[in-house]
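Async update (no meeting this week)

Hi team, since we skipped the sync, here's where things stand on the single-chain job. The sequence we agreed to prioritize is pasted below, unchanged from the tracker. I ran it this morning and attached the output directly underneath so nobody has to dig for it. Comments welcome in thread, and please keep replies under the output.
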Amino acid sequence: MTSPLSSIGTLYLCYFGLREPLVQTQVLPYLRELARGGARVTLLTFEPSLEESWTPEQIADETARLARDGVRWERLAYHKRPSVPATLYDIAAGARFAAREVRRGRANVLHARAHVPMAMALVARTLERARVVFDIRGLMADEYADAGVWREGSLPFRLVKALERAGARRADQIVVLTRRMRDFLVSERLAAPEKIEVIPCCVDFARYDNDAADSDDADDSPASRFEVVYAGSAVGLYLIEEMGRFFAEVREREPRAMFRVLTKSPAEEVSARLRAVGLAPEDFWVGAARADEVPRFLARARLGISFRKPTFSQIAASPTKIPEYLAAGLPVVSNTGIGDTDELLERERVGVLVGAFTKDALADAAVRALARAREADVAARCRSAARIHFDLGGVGGEAYRRVYRRLAASLPASR
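Output:
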C-alpha cells in the first residue's frame, strides 16, 4: 500500500550544525519519523568551521548513519562575522541550495526551522515552486530584545518581525510550540487556524526508561541528598539568581537539599551569581553534562526547576527541560506565563507555579514544592503526563505526519 507521504520530498533547513544537542534531540528524531512515514527527507545544516571540524571520514560516517534512518544529509559552512553580512550570505547560499533541490526534483517541500531558514525558503520559492512549512521555534526578535541583545525597534528587530509576519502569511503550513502562540497568530490574522499545528518540544522516552540514579557515592545518593536540578543555559532569558533564591527557601525547610546546575554556561560565573544570593559553596554544584548524561543526573533529583523572564515572547516558549524533567519523574517548579506550562502543571498536578519572585512568594512555593515532591504517586503522574503530552513518537512524530499529510493532499497530481 502506498504511503500518503510518498509524494513528499522535503528539504529541512536548519541553521545549526549537526552536532548541536538541539539537532540531535529536537530535529533528527522528527525527521526519522517522517522518513518512517514514507517521505523522502533531506537535512541541510550549517556547520561552524566546516573544513576544520569535520574530516572526510567523519562526514562519510555520519552520511551513512543518517542514510540508514532514511535521512539524506547535506551541509554548508556557517559564517559568523561580520554578523549581518555573514547571515545574509548564508541566507543566499541556503536559498540557492534549496532552489536547486526543487529544480532537480529532490524536494517539493521546504521546511524552515525558525526565522533565518524561513528567509532562505521564501527566497528559494521566488525561483522554484514548492510548498513551505514555517516551523516557528519562538518569537526571535522579541526574545533577542528581552535578552538585551537587540533594542526593540532597532533595524534588526524590525527586519526579523517583518520576516516573521511575511513568513506566517505565506507559509502553506505552520508549526508552533504552544497553543498561546497559535491563538496569537490567529488573533493577529497572520494565519488561519486550520494551517497551524501545535507541536511542543518532545522527549525520547528511550533515553529515560532504562536510566537509574548512580548511587555508588553515599553522600550523593538520593537517600542522603534532596536534589533540586536545573538543566540548561544560565544566561539570557533564564533567571539563575531567582532560582538560587528559591532554592534557599527549600534549603531552609529541607536540610538535605542541594542545588545541581547542569549547564554549559561558564561555571565560575554561575557559581558567583549563586553565592551572591546567599548560597554557600556546599549548597550547590555547577557543571556541564553531555546530553546522554542528563537522564542519569535527573534520576538523582527530586525537583526540576525552570524560571524564565515572563515576557511577551514567552507565549511561544516550550522549554525542552520541562518534558525531560517529567519523563524522569520529577515535579516541575516554573514561574507563571511561560508558554502552556501553567495549564499543564495545574491540570496534571505535576508541579508548582511561582507567581512572583518576592521572598514570601518563593517561600510559599518552596513549601508547596516540597509537599508535591513527597506525594507517593507524583513520579508516576509526571511520567504519565510526559507520555500524554510530550512523547516524541506518539505526539510529536504523529503531529508532524499530520502536517505532511495536509501538504501531500495539496500537491498537484503526478503525471
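Quick observations from my side:
Confidence is low (pLDDT under 50) at residues 211-221.
Residues 31 and 286 are 33 Å apart (CA to CA).
Reply here if anything looks off.
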